[in-house]
Amino acid sequence: MELIISGRSEGLAAASAINDFFIREGTAMYVLQTHLKLLQMPSLPFHALGIYIEALDHTKPSSSPITVQPQKKLVGSRSGQSQKMYELTIGNGYYQLDAPARRAAICSAFVSIAESLDAEFPSADGRALADRIRSVAQTNAAVVA
Predict the structure, then answer these.
(1) pLDDT tier, 77 (very low <50, low <70, confident <90, very high otherwise)
(2) Is 10 in contact with 56 (CB distance < 8 Å)?
(3) I want to staple 90 with a disulfide (CB 3.0 to 4.6 A). Which of 35, 55, 98, 122 is the partner?
(4) How far apart are CA 55 and CA 84, in angstroms?
(5) Is-contact 118 141, C-beta < 8 A?
(6) Which is nearest to 34 in space by CA: 125, 135, 144?
(7) CA separation (Å) from 70 to 83, 85, 91, 94, 140?
(8) Residue 70, Cα to own-chain centre: how many angstroms?
(9) For residue 145, is pLDDT > 50?
(10) What is the sign, positive or negative, of the torsion defined by CA atoms of 122, 128, 133, 142?
């Protein structure tokens, strides 16, 4: 299973927020990518998990630190394989959080993705993928607890 990250931000504050999601050693996203590389999920109709991150700047209103929206259809990836895409919007409330609370918000977003996968793909592979994502979220949340 491949993890494909893309996104955009507006302004310095938004760029800082989106930077928390970059795949660098020690981040929750890095751990998730590492775990997904180990998985082979032949029964799922996609070969990659795509996460598109958009960070709003301070001037745009939002009600929560991070919202998660699954795309309705599978989309093609750069390699021509299909991917299940999730859109994460980092809102204004994210900028006011301290580092542990930001990490908790990221982990909460991962749990939302796992719940969505569980509901949409109730096969053994779908559950295994969702469980792996939950495990990454719980492990990373425990680091700050």
Answers:
(1) low
(2) yes
(3) 55
(4) 20
(5) no
(6) 135
(7) 12, 6, 17, 20, 22
(8) 10
(9) no
(10) positive
> Is 26 exposed, middle or buried, given 0-12, 13-18 or 19+ CB atoms closer than 10 A?
exposed
Q: Strand 48-55 and strand 2-9: pairing?
A: parallel
Alpha-helical regions (H) of 11-123: 11-19, 28-37, 99-120
- Which tokens belong to 120? 């949409």
What angle do the packed helices 99-120 and 124-144 form, to 10 degrees?
170
pLDDT-based confidence at 78, cuts 50/70/90?
low
142 falls in which pLDDT band (50, 70, 90)?
low
> Any idea what DSSP says for residue 43?
T
Going by C-beta distance under 8 Å and a sequence separation of 6 or more, which residues neighbour residue 86?
49, 50, 51, 52, 68, 69, 70, 71, 113, 116
111 has a pLDDT exceeding 50: yes
CB–CB of 9/54 below 8 Å? yes
